[in-house]
């Protein structure tokens, strides 16, 4: 194991982590960024990005993350390709244990992000980014005046369906039970929307589509009451809305998390319950979950870390 000490350790290589690195490097903090298992985060599985400011035309998610990496590196960030699996925040300097390195740091920014929960069927993997998405606000525009389906029954699913009803020609909400878990006010809006149809007691058996070009053409549903009963629905977009999971397994027991596993920070802040440890992006944001908000929080965390280090050094 190689020992690495740094003033500021940034854990995570998505928009929050890379932006934090840029601001920290400009403040001459000489940050070290540990990429994790998926450098670039969720944007590495996003094809066309049309809502990131500054670009007149759609850009590719992996390309945007590569540009952020290059910028952070050019500013002076030490980028290390490793995965932090455990931490010790009980004393300073803080210690983070990677697979190949042991990191000690005077301050830490956690930007490990979150990942959408998926159905974990093979056809879903085939069409991710080609009609299958986990973010309506990110990808809904591509299905303007086209039929789509939303899978799920909680707040996220209902909110996605309502949002897509303003864009798509029709929305079919598929839920494996006979009632929704969403808040009553959201359910009322859903039931009153003439563009939304609900299929109860069904789940996806297979996503249907073409390979040349790769595109979704429909879904085969199976009944949860009678599994041998199936039906096909024609849709061009499928939005999986069964929740997100923050990547906080390595922080359990070391920092305050809420019941869903998100790092707790005061509203509008990046501070955690441990002075000197900050959190930015989807790892603490369960509401917006956008690249641009994650980048903004990365900036905030870097400025907060700079202030902390100035006061305490």
Helix and strand topology:
Layout lengths: L1 E10 L3 H12 L5 E3 L13 E2 L9 E2 H15 L2 E3 L3 E5 L5 E5 L2 E10 L3 E3 L5 H6 L4 E2 L2 H4 L7 E5 L3 H10 L5 E5 L9 H9 L3 E4 L2 E10 L2 E10 L6 E5 L2 E4 L3 E3 L30 E3 L11 H22 L1
Parallel strand pairs: 1-2, 1-8, 2-5, 8-19, 10-17, 11-12, 11-17, 12-13
Antiparallel strand pairs: 3-4, 6-7, 7-8, 9-18, 14-15, 15-16
Helix pairs in contact: 1-2, 1-7, 5-6
Task: Provide structural commentary.
The chain has 313 residues and is of the alpha/beta class. It folds into two domains: 2-115 and 244-312, FAD/NAD(P)-binding domain (3-Layer(bba) Sandwich); 118-240, FAD/NAD(P)-binding domain (3-Layer(bba) Sandwich). The chain has seven helices and 19 strands. The protein has helices at 15-26, 61-75, 122-127, 136-139, 155-164, 184-192, 291-312; strands spanning 2-11, 32-34, 48-49, 59-60, 78-80, 84-88, 94-98, 101-110, 114-116, 132-133, 147-151, 170-174, 196-199, 202-211, 214-223, 230-234, 237-240, 244-246, 277-279. Strands 1, 2, 5, 6, 7, 8 and 19 form a seven-stranded mixed β-sheet that branches. Strands 10-17-11-12-13 form a five-stranded parallel β-sheet. Strands 14-15-16 form a three-stranded antiparallel β-sheet. Strand 15 (214-223) and strand 16 form a beta hairpin. Helix 5 (155-164) packs parallel to helix 6. The model has no long low-confidence stretch (mean pLDDT 94).
């Amino acid at each position: 194991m190689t020992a690495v000490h740094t003033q500021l350790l940034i854990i995570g290589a998505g928009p929050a982590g890379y932006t934090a690195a840029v601001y920290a490097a400009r403040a001459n903090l000489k940050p070290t960024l540990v990429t994790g298992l998926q450098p670039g985060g969720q944007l590495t599985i996003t094809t066309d990005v049309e809502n990131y400011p500054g670009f007149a035309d759609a850009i590719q998610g992996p390309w945007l993350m590569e540009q952020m990496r290059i910028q952070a590196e050019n500013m002076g960030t030490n980028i290390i390709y490793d995965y932090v699996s455990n931490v010790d925040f009980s004393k300073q300097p803080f210690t983070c244990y990677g697979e190949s390195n042991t990191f000690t740091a005077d301050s830490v920014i956690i930007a490990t992000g979150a990942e959408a929960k998926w159905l974990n069927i093979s056809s879903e993997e085939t069409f991710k980014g080609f009609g299958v998405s986990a973010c309506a606000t990110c990808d809904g525009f591509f299905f303007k005046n086209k039929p789509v389906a939303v899978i799920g029954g909680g707040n996220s699913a209902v909110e996605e369906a309502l949002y897509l009803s303003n864009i798509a020609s029709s929305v079919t909400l598929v839920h494996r039970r006979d009632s929704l878990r969403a808040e009553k006010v959201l359910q009322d809006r859903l039931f009153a929307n003439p563009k939304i149809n609900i299929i109860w007691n069904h789940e996806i058996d297979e996503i249907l589509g073409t390979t040349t070009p790769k595109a979704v053409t429909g879904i085969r549903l199976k009944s949860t009451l009678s599994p041998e009963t199936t039906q096909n629905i024609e849709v061009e977009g499928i939005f999986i809305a069964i929740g997100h999971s923050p990547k906080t397994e390595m922080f359990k027991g070391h920092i305050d998390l809420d019941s869903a596993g998100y790092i707790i920070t005061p509203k509008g802040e990046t501070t955690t319950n441990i002075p000197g440890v900050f959190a930015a992006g989807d790892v603490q944001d369960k509401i917006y979950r956008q690249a641009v908000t994650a980048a903004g929080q990365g900036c905030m965390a870097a400025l907060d870390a700079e202030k902390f280090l100035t006061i305490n050094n």
